[in-house]
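Late entry, evening session. Most of the bench is empty. Finally got around to the prediction I had been postponing all week. Sequence below, unchanged from the version circulated by S.P.
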Amino acid sequence: MSFDSLGLLAELLRAVSEKGYTEPTPIQSKTIPIILKGNDIMGGAQTGTGKTAGFTLPLLQLLSKDAPGKGPRRVRALIITPTRELAAQVRESVEDYGKHLPLKSTVVFGGVNIKPQMVRLRQGVDILVATPGRLLDLAGQKSVDLSRVEILVLDEADRMLDMGFIHDIRKIIALLPKKRQNLLFSATFSNDIKKLADGLLDSPVLIEVARRNAMAEGIGQVVHPVDRERKRELLSHLITSNNWKQILVFTRTKHGANRLAKQLESDGITAAAIHGNKSQGARTKALADFKAGNVRVLAATDIAARGLDIDQLPHVVNFDLPSVPEDYIHRIGRTGRAGMEGEAMSLVCIDEHKLLRDIELLIKRELPKEVMPGYEPDPSIKAEPIRQGRNASHGKREGKNKQTQSYRGKSNSFGKKGGRQEKHGFAAQGRRRRTG
């Protein structure tokens, strides 16, 4: 199948061709015709399969049928994403695919000055990409009118629920007209996602191109058992001995990401850290340097697990295993994207054996284990509690939160149903400054 067969406008086909794409991915070939018909969609596919183009292309076409004249523009399509990085990348896709259409777009998110965003909104836009917290801030200041939105897209809906944005999402939906087209996209379909869909979507078409919690094919996975105090030493050895040039490394905490980046620099390996406590400018620079090859290692917390889109990223390393098994899928999904091959390695110490078993149960397979010569685990070392600090692995607690612990993987998380975020209705303001 080619893009020509999907009923897209010539302007969109031209933009797709200019990006070098000739054949749609499965999620694109299934979703585009249905969205063009005006149906609501509940779309699921593992990360890296082209979901963004799957909703961006038909959205642009639908809006172009009634392109604005000389009058004031209004927000006609609203795309909500969980993180700043993902919001910026979605807006970039909107611009790339819509470059030959007379539509205007902008993106708003927290961590940067709100005033320039208010100015752009006053100038009028057709398509708005936003994170929930900043969008509600702008709505509260009467800087954005959502009463005429025709199409709502919730991208990475499961991630937004994980990050505690459910009440924000409900407040945003209350600002929208009742009659609209709704597109919900998610890498996984949990029961909470299905409950959200039941209250949001109108007779949706369910499109799932991979089984729930599936991983992209083409990703080689391996576990390297190693003592906790020798993880950094082993990582440096793997990078230098294999001459790896671009490695995304996931840590459990923000402090851990900072410390690892500094330690790698001391080993002569260029590195940068990206997490919720970094300013937006620092996060943007770190990602740009990594993409440009100016740094070899990007140490990241799970806030980056689904917010980074790096072409042909060859290596992902779990320096720490995530406490939530599903996050393993999202992390390694940063490599092996769009049919490319990639490698995912996990450095696992005795503290993380229960976490590893939980991951293997989720993916229904045992991961191969390879002990690196010279880095054999010391059998006399006992397991210790995993201290997660002030940001648990799910990214949703990248702001204010209680300290959480898990002993051999048994976590006592704060901020889920019944916790502070749910009780107060809004996501914690401290967290909003960092993630929304």
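Two things to note before I forget:
Residues 3-208 form a domain with the Rossmann fold fold (CATH 3.40.50.300).
DSSP finds 16 helices and 16 strands in the chain.
Will write this up properly tomorrow.
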